[in-house]
């Protein structure tokens, strides 16, 4: 994926295992399959029913989890996390899972998403005496649980969850149980699987295939699953109103994952087909920007009855130096990440399909690369609507002023990136192509970054100083 170059990054991926003696090994492979969701840090917490152990660090899964360290982790239950820093920034202390010890027992948390009322809750908790050890919004839940009184742990968790606003898929673990919660809008994906009598939780179903688990079902909005040695108890802490992030289908999730019963590759292919119907153009060849746009490009070519070719090749051996959130690194990394195939594009009218345009910098460089390789025309087609609004739910989209579609018309963007033509998929076309099995105008998906209609209240202290809602 080109998220590290384009400035479109998901916050993280989470994975959990309960009831298997090889939990540490399963965690390693599960998190490795979710590596595309975060490359800045990884961690896991293990329990044997009496004691919990933490292993985490900055870097990729293969860098953090060395064989010698993994061999020391013993237990049948584990939660894990890969992260890309958004809320709270980077640093070792913010690498998850967060782990807390106390006289009444230990607590570990892993979180995918972003809490829009985290700052308000932090002020409230600090006024009551809480001291925060990290700058991550995830720690808010730990304090809410700890300050929940002497009632049952499950009830404390449920009460704490009702105070949170925003996007969250939480995995919470104590010595003897695992708790899994999804926010009332279901903004982030989360699924339940089984393996040889054990339970497996993952941000994406692709991890089940890697570890050999069987997919059971998607976890529903407002659900709390309590998993222990007696099995699974399903409770509800809020009413359900599904609003899955559309970018999971468009860009973030792996093509071999399924969300709400819809395969991501098939969904992206339909996006490309719908785009071809909405924005046809005379051309000789269709190509996609590797990797996330390949499926959409295949769909576009199929519907347009044009040949699909590998007009660009991705270099898979670029070091992690180029998976950094600085704009300078993004721009410098484009040429090392992608190379045009001259034999495919030279003398051709090329349709370049991409999944999104954030700042426009990468699109401009790719268009120029194709022209330098001999393309006579470059027509850019985007398999999503223009991103005009920031995301407050855990995706690192910029402030409005940095989003090119928020400050430029399509004609101006076309000129800015140097293309012969530019077209985006409509919001209506997006909903139609995904064909999700939900009622309502948006079919149970969030379109906020395209339309500005947010499914939750956005708190003023979460905004950039110059932003307004």
What are the salient characteristics of this protein?
single chain, about 475 residues, alpha+beta, Glutamine Phosphoribosylpyrophosphate, subunit 1, domain 1, Rossmann fold, seven-stranded antiparallel β-sheet, six-stranded antiparallel β-sheet, 23 strands, globular, disordered N terminus, disordered C terminus
Q: Would you kindly provide a written description of the structure presented here, covering whatever features stand out?
A:
This protein is an alpha+beta fold and 469 residues long. It folds into two domains: 3-241, 4-Layer Sandwich (Glutamine Phosphoribosylpyrophosphate, subunit 1, domain 1); 263-316 and 325-441, Rossmann fold, CATH 3.40.50. It has 18 helices and 23 strands. The strands form six sheets. The protein has a seven-stranded antiparallel beta sheet with strand order 3-2-4-1-10-9-11. Strand 15 and strand 16 form a beta hairpin. Helix 10 packs across helix 11 (294-304), helix 10 crosses helix 17 (427-434) and helix 12 runs parallel beside helix 14 (361-372). The longest helix has 15 residues, at 264-278. The model is unreliable at 1-6, 319-324 and 464-469 (pLDDT under 50).
């Amino acid at each position: 994926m080109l998220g590290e170059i384009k400035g479109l990054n998901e916050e993280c991926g989470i994975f959990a295992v309960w009831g298997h003696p090889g939990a540490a090994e399963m965690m390693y492979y599960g998190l490795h399959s979710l590596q595309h969701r975060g490359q800045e840090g990884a961690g896991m917490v293990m329990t044997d029913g009496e004691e919990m152990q933490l292993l985490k660090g900055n870097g990729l899964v293969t860098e953090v989890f060395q064989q010698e360290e993994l061999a020391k982790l013993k237990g049948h239950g584990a939660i894990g996390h890969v992260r890309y820093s958004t809320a709270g920034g980077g640093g070792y202390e913010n690498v998850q899972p967060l782990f807390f010890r106390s006289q009444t027992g230990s607590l570990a948390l892993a979180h995918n998403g972003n809490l829009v009322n985290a700052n308000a809750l932090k002020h409230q908790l600090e006024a009551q005496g809480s001291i925060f050890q990290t700058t991550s919004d995830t720690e808010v839940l730990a304090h809410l649980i700890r300050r929940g009184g002497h009632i049952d742990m499950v009830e404390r968790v449920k009460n704490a969850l009702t105070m949170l606003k925003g996007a969250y898929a939480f995995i919470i673990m104590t010595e003897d149980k695992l708790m899994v919660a999804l926010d009332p809008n279901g903004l982030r994906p989360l699924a339940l699987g089984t393996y040889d009598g054990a339970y497996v939780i993952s941000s994406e179903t692709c991890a089940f295939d890697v570890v050999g688990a069987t997919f059971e079902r998607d976890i529903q909005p407002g659900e709390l699953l309590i998993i222990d040695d007696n099995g699974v108890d399903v409770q509800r802490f809020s009413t359900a109103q599904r609003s899955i992030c559309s970018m999971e289908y468009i860009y973030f999730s792996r093509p071999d994952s399924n969300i709400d019963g819809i395969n991501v590759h098939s969904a992206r292919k339909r996006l490309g087909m719908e785009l071809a119907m909405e924005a046809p153009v005379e051309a000789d060849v269709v190509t996609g920007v590797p990797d996330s746009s390949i499926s959409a490009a295949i769909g576009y070519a199929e519907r347009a009855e044009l040949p699909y070719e590998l007009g660009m090749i991705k270099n898979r051996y670029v070091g992690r130096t180029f998976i950094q959130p600085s704009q300078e690194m993004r721009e410098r990394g484009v040429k090392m990440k992608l190379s045009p195939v001259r034999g495919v594009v030279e003398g051709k009218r090329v349709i370049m399909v991409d999944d999104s345009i954030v700042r426009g910098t990468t699109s401009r460089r790719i268009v120029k690369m194709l022209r330098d390789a001999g393309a006579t025309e470059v027509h850019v087609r985007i398999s999503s609507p223009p991103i005009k609004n920031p995301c407050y739910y855990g995706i690192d989209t910029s402030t409005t002023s940095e989003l090119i579609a928020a400050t430029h018309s399509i004609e101006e963007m076309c000129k800015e990136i140097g293309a012969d033509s530019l077209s985006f998929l409509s919001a209506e076309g997006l909903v139609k192509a995904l064909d999700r099995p939900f009622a309502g105008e948006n079919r149970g998906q969030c379109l906020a970054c395209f339309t500005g209609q947010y499914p939750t209240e956005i708190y003023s202290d979460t905004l950039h100083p110059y932003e307004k809602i």
